[in-house]
Amino acid sequence: MKTLLIIRHAKSSWDTATLSDFDRPLNDRGKKDAPIMAKRLIEGKIKPELFVSSPAKRAKKTAELFIQEFGHHEEEILFISELYHAPTALFYEIISKFDDRYRSIAIFSHNPGITEFVNTLTSVRLDNMPTCGIFAVNSMADCWKDFQGSKKEFWFFDYPKSIAST
């Protein structure tokens, strides 16, 4: 069985209009939400073995904040440039190349592709994957190359505004 956690980057800042989309940083809320959501995974005893991210600044920082909460080093994050605004087919292609030694992987990416992708995984549908939202599925595949065609079960969906303390 393989577990995939699909995570949209945390809330980004629009303060500097001249920045490219790729270079937009997290805003204060995003910097607060990412560690909170990572802690929610830790509390649930959910431990991704590999962290994979788009290299765009807001996704990268979100992944860094998550991995820090897990006590790992930022250098352990695998950055894949194609995850920046990836369409559904590209998500599947990237996943198919993951090393089978990893049973649980967290992927950090962007809308609209991330919402489109999660809507292909199970019968659970989202209108919009919220910032720092986590959509988790379990796949009956033994190998990541078989993930796309495998039977998948919705595990959970969580996002910052579902936390009563925020």
Structure characterization notes:
By secondary structure, the chain is of the alpha/beta class. The protein is 27% helix and 19% strand. The chain contains 4 helices and 6 strands, in the order E-H-E-H-E-H-E-H-E-E. It has a 6-stranded mixed beta sheet with strand order 3-2-4-1-5-6. Helix 1 packs parallel to helix 2.
The proportion of strand residues reads: 15-25%
Order of strands across the main sheet: 3-2-4-1-5-6
The portion of residues assigned to helices is: 25-40%
Q: Tell me the total number of β-strands.
A: 6
The number of distinct helices, counting runs of at least 4 residues, comes to: 4
Low-confidence parts lasting 5 or more residues at pLDDT below 50?
none
Question: Helices, strands, pairings?
Answer:
Blueprint: E1 2-8, H1 28-43, E2 50-53, H2 57-69, E3 78-79, H3 88-96, E4 104-109, H4 113-118, E5 134-139, E6 152-158
Parallel strand pairs: 1-4, 2-3, 2-4
Antiparallel strand pairs: 1-5, 5-6
Helix pairs in contact: 1-2
